[in-house]
Fold this sequence. Notes:
Layout: H1 3-7, H2 18-21, E1 22-26, E2 35-40, H3 46-60, H4 63-75, H5 78-88, H6 95-115, E3 120-121, E4 141-145, E5 153-161, H7 167-176, H8 186-192, H9 197-206, E6 215-224, H10 228-235, E7 243-249, H11 253-269
Parallel strand pairs: 2-7, 5-6, 6-7
Antiparallel strand pairs: 1-2, 3-4, 4-5
Helix pairs in contact: 3-11, 4-5, 6-11, 8-9
Amino acid sequence: MTKQEEILGPHPITHPVIGAWLDFEDKESTETQCLRTLSEKKEIDEDVISRFSDCLLNYHHQDKAIQMMKTNLEKLGFPKFAQYYELARKMPMNLNTQKGNAVEVLMTEYSLAAINKSDLTFAHRFRYNPNVDQSMKGDDMLIVDFSDTAHPVIYLGEAKYRKTVNKEVVNDVLESLSKGKMPLSLTFLRDCAETNETEYALLDDLLTKALSNYDIRYIGFIAGDTNAYKTVEKHWISDNPRHLILVLSMNNPEKFVVDSFKKATEKLTRKE
């Protein structure tokens, strides 16, 4: 087992987006670097875009909200529906926000599939963003594994998108995942679980404990052009022994984001 597999899990080859689209390599780990590179094993096609757009919809809109949009699309004329959609939408139109949200969704989907357990607690946090065209505050990703309630495992994630990844971006993620960093969003995660009494109680109990005594695993995710992994490999020096940095190198990262959000919006605003 590689250190990457120990911290997060194996590359999720069965995931409907990641498995068909991305290949991986676990680089030899050192005391200061645990790196998994992700690369495209095929060009991004309509199937990848459509499948990832479904992920975007799921992370930004509750199922009930999507159903109501479909209903209103049928019964309202275009001008009224356009006004309604502007008020009801949860997906950003701002490109920079789209980029940030897309890599957070990718990181979370990747991590959930790699951990591959049924008792994982997390939030589709963009559903609760009050200002959809601005980036949301708090942890980019927070997953708690309660499969052993006496010894929960916490996964704390930080994601960055840059068309061209530089040392500054690497340092930003390093700082966010440095040794001793604690989750910021546990109360948010607890409140999102208000309809699940068991999860709510387990998360509330975490707030009464010294989190430094728990198994916290730190996941970084950096997406950029085809040279992204080279920059990260050169500059990544972490003081945190429980970290994993995932680096996604893409031929056209901005087009992937734009096309995916466009497809997701079409699925909400066009009649089938």
